Amino acid sequence: MTTAAQPAHPPLLWRPGPEQVAAARLTRFHAWAAERHGAPAPGGGPAADYAALHRWSVAELGRFWQALAEWFQVRFSAPYETALADRAMPGARWFPGAALNYAEHALSAGEDPARAAGPALLCADETGGLRPVSWAELRGQVGALAAELRRLGVRPGDRVSGYVPNVPQAAVALLATAAVGGVWTSCSPDFGARGVLDRFRQVEPVVLFAVDGYTYGGRPHDRTGTVAELRRELPGLRAVVHIPLLGTPAPEGALDWDAVVRDPVEPVFEQVPFDHPLWVLYSSGTTGLPKAIVQSQGGILLEHLKQLGLHNDLGPGDRFFWYTSTGWMMWNLLVSGLLVGATVVLYDGSPGHPGPDAQWRVAERTGATLYGTSAGYVMACRKAGVRPGRDLDLSRVRCVGITGSPLPPDGFRWLHDEVSEDLWIASVSGGTDVCSGFAGAVPTLPVYAGEIQAPSLAVDLQAWDEHGGPVVDEVGELVVASPMPSMPVRFWNDPAGSRYRESYFAMFPGVWRHGDWTTVTSRGTVVIHGRSDSTLNRQGVRMGSADIYEVVERLPEIRESLVIGVEQPDGGYWMPLFVHLAPGAVLDEDLRGRVRAALREQLSPRHVPDEILQVPGVPHTLTGKRIEVPVKRLMQGVPLERAVNPGSVDDPGLLDFFAELARGRAT
Questions:
Q1: What angle in degrees, to the nearest 10, is found between the helix axes of 297-304 and 61-71?
Q2: Which residues pair with 14 in a beta bridge?
Q3: Is 145 left (phi over 0), alpha (psi -120 to 50) or beta?
Q4: Where residue 4 falls among pLDDT bands split at 50, 70, 90?
Q5: Tens of pLDDT along 199-216?
Q6: Is residue 98 within 8 Å of residue 78, measured between CB atoms?
Q7: How many CB atoms lie under 10 A from the CB of residue 228?
Q8: What is the spatial distance between Cα 371 and Cα 402, in angstroms, rounded to a whole number?
Q9: b/e map of 96-126 (b: 16 or more CB within 10 Å)?
Q10: I need a surface site. Which of 96, 411, 579, 648 has the fewest CB within 10 A?
């Protein structure tokens, strides 16, 4: 595969000072692990130290995870036999014999009388309001709700579902479910009934937490009709808990949230095996039923302690804000900020209301120290001329995290120039599949424009060529060659494990192939080029779509773009570029010429599309990722109902446009 040439030394945007490196939890963990667990001794400088620690963490997986569990004082109510009994993928066996509870760790900061009155959650909305939930209040509500779940007959392994936005009730319901050993699953209320049922029907929940509606973009959105349909179509429900965000009374037969959590109760935590299911997350489901991905209590606990405590350097005193919804894995990771004693900022509202700087204003208002968002939002702010560093007080924001899609170098430079020159920009690549990152933030390493700092500890990330050999400074398939504890324990309703194996292990048996093009540089950084399952292949040369988007969307006239490559029956290859224009822009020959010239000069002649077509919008998954493969299938003549699941798309009406375009080309 070819892609845009990677400069030998892209611009250096940030480097932590000696005091920051010394104070980082990662630095302290490294020294402790060297003394107690045989990790290589630090002392070679930040880059050499991290590289050595990473090599050890991959080579000595069991030793690393044992060390991490001790460092974070994980509470095992029953001892484990060994940290890693079997390294096979799939099927790795972690901490056999151990018993623990995720929610117990998430609420442990509230056991300290000195912290009990401090904020565990900070809840923001579009009105500008801000409501804290103390650690004591959170523990009391979780305890009360867990007691109610037990009264309703919820037992370990039973599924509990939430049709809820990013509000404190959702976090309480997740933690109460985990406390009783139930299995949590959630969808955001912007999902329609079909999208929710495609997910919840698979796992057959016994309890449903549901809002009557939500506020978005300054307007209320009633969901009582959708909730009524969910109640009819989920026959296994024993109870529905009504959360009246719009102030409506509980429907007949439903429990009222306020009544359930009114009287605080000290929580009781069911002790479960390490690999006991914690939650079910879902793939996008654009071409069929979403995969129902089961992750374990112990695996998520350890992985999130590592990710948040070491890589993101979060702890007591931090305020952790990530713009997300309950339908995206980042919400689950956000709630896990409680594990390291950070205050978690929950924002329920539109990312762009009342203006494009809305998320930055939430970061200012809440005093966030780590603020996370999507690459798409950063690039939209850049195009809109937002200047957060000039217009707002973001002095407490020391790190901005980016995920969802690759952030182009221009996005890095915008953050550096328009937020702060002393800003740790933490681009992260991971996935719902592991509810974590494969590569991302390292508090002791520099940040280069367009690059992810490094592979995460204990992640054996490599780029492989088509023959299954590792490559450096070249584009290859992103693989993980050793197991991670947060990898799925299974897919729901996949008893033989065939769908699980086909999803990740079909190309390279025994090695996780994630489906991204990546470059691992000789400097240890990582670049993501886009999905390998939507590869562009011209004249035998494979190209990444992300490189094209980066170049095209620098043009101010183009709001967003989508490129696909279509193999044609006569052996030809058609590569159209669809462009969604900015208001007032016109797709004339001058603009088409500038697009072609930019791609030719900045990438190569092969990257120049066959046609440039204007579209009313670009369709995305419900978590904001561009939909390339279903549009390609439509253009190949696959009927709309077989090409894509409309319930998985943010604007299903756009699919009709592409389907009509495909029919027009076929005649």
A1: 80
A2: 447
A3: alpha
A4: very low
A5: 999 999 999 999 999 999
A6: yes
A7: 14
A8: 9
A9: eebbbbbbbbbbbbbeeeebbebbbbbbbbb
A10: 96
pLDDT of residue 604: 76
Classify 478 as helix, strand or coil: strand
Q: How far apart are the first and last CA of the chain?
A: 34
Cβ neighbour number for residue 243 with a 10 Å cutoff: 25
**Do 224 and 104 form a contact (C-beta atoms < 8 A)?**
no
- Helix, strand, or coil here: 402? strand
Does the pTM of the predicted model rise above 0.85?
yes
Specify burial of residue 562 (Cβ count, 10 A radius: 0-12, 13-18, 19+).
Answer: buried
Tokens 């109460």 belong to which residue?
176
Separation between Cα atoms, residue 222 and residue 215, nearest integer Å: 9
Sheet strands (E) in 205-276:
207-211, 213-216, 219-222, 239-243, 255-256, 272-273
pLDDT tens, position by position, 153-208: 999 999 999 999 999 999 999 999 999 999 999 999 998 888 899 999 999 999 99
Question: Which letter, b or e, does each residue of 140-166 get, where b requires 16 or more Cβ atoms within 10 Å of its Cβ?
Answer: bbbbbbbbbbbebebeeebbbbbbbbb
| Number of neighbours of residue 611 by Cβ within 10 angstroms | 10
